[in-house]
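Holo prediction — nicotinamide-adenine-dinucleotide.
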Amino acid sequence: MSFNLLKNKRGIIFGALDENSIAWQVALKAHEEKASFTLTNTDLALRKGDIFRLAELTGSKVIAADVTSPDDLETLIADSVKELGGKLDFILHSVGMSPNVRKNVHYTELNYDYFHRTLDISAMSLHKVLAVAKKLDAINEYGSVVTLSYIGAQRQFSSYSDMSQAKAMLESIVRSFGYHYGHYKKVRVNSISQSPTQTTAGKGVGGFDSFYAYSRCMSPLGNATSEECAEFCMLMFSDYSRKVTMQNIFHDGGFSNMGISDELIGSCFKCSGDCDHK
Ligand SMILES: NC(=O)c1ccc[n+]([C@@H]2O[C@H](COP(=O)([O-])OP(=O)(O)OC[C@H]3O[C@@H](n4cnc5c(N)ncnc54)[C@H](O)[C@@H]3O)[C@@H](O)[C@H]2O)c1
């Protein structure tokens, strides 16, 4: 069902790799809500993923960009404004990657070159997107920039590794740049802290199935799906959230405020007592 929430709005959607990607669902929903937008990802993702199918489904142009490269971002944003016929109203930054996680490097033995890369791709890149957009004055007043985070920014999840630091930095950039961009141009910047979701990035985290099951049993509303995340993004891009900025908003079925649930006490989890925690 469409409410025309994004009619006449223009945007850029980063991070659609395949139909499991959260960004993929956001693009489908934004199309349904009558937005026009460009899609972007790395050259490699363009070759290996399925983004051109999404472009066909949504009538969008694909523009390659590495989100860590300010030059790529400048071309992407300038070309998007030209292609869409005016300044932007929304940007989805749905990008994350840790070479340490990908290569199973233990947290206590992090490779620091990889760590830099994790922070650059998964956090600093938001600053770069915002800085280039501001420099080009590419976003309309009350435009909305949304990035995706995870509760690993606040709490320890054993295999989330250096992505925890990346998400903490990401959420901090949301507040700091959100202040400056709000003050300067009334542009809004927020992060959505999403439930574990079955995507390429999600499943790359060790023990993902346990993360997913644990959080489903803990959350009174269950895990939020990528489709539900996309619906929430529509609200965040729409004028109905025009005074919301500098926030990290949990979209997690209630997980973030839980201690323990009946489900965990009851049937889902039984410790055999065989571990070291006597
Ligand atoms: N899946 C989950 O459980 C979950 C939960 C909370 C938050 N998130 C966050 O949601 C966002 C989207 O992830 P997803 O789960 O949809 O997985 P995904 O793997 O589909 O998306 C990640 C995207 O980042 C892109 N990317 C990586 N390096 C890049 C670069 N240098 N330049 C441009 N793009 C680059 C990838 O090509 C991919 O499209 C990430 O920030 C992730 O951390 C995911």
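READOUT: The first helix runs from residue 22 to 32.
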